[in-house]
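Colleagues,

For the teaching module next term, I've prepared a clean inverse folding example: a structure given as tokens, and then the sequence designed for it. I'd like students to try predicting residues themselves before seeing the answer, so please don't circulate the second half yet.
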């Protein structure tokens, strides 16, 4: 695919910027009627599979976690989100943008990610009302020896 085609897809499918690939299993946590439906549909279109919910009991390639300020403890939510993904997998933490109900301070995201053992690699606008932060799990020494 050409660079021009890549950019065209990013404009038409907001999920293209998240790096999902065909065949990946993406677990969605924290779904509610306020989430960005266009982004969800775009992820399903890119992967060719439906998003699986929080009851999914197999290993996922990535997680999309919708989190609002009043959803509880962010560190706990991030730790829970990483229990069923591959080492080196990513969690896309989706939080309401500044000024929206449920807004989460960036410093709170950074602190919770660090405490949960995750590294923040980038942030994006995930739609009209949501921002996304890509958090990755570390590759452990154990996995490097395999």
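(Answer key — instructors only)
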């Amino acid at each position: 695919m050409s660079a021009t085609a890549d950019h065209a897809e990013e404009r038409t499918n907001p999920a293209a910027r998240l790096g999902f690939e065909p065949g990946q299993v993406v677990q969605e946590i924290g779904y509610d009627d306020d989430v960005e439906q266009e982004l969800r549909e775009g992820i399903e279109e890119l992967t060719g599979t439906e998003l699986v919910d929080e009851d999914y009991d197999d290993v996922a390639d990535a997680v999309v976690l919708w989190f609002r300020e009043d959803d509880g403890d962010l560190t706990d939510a991030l730790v829970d989100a990483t229990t069923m993904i591959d080492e080196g997998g990513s969690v896309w933490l989706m939080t309401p943008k500044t000024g929206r109900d449920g807004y989460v301070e960036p410093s709170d995201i950074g602190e919770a990610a660090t405490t949960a053992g995750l590294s923040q690699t980038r942030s994006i606008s995930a739609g009209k009302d949501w921002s996304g932060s890509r958090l990755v799990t570390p590759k452990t020494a154990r996995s490097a020896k395999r």
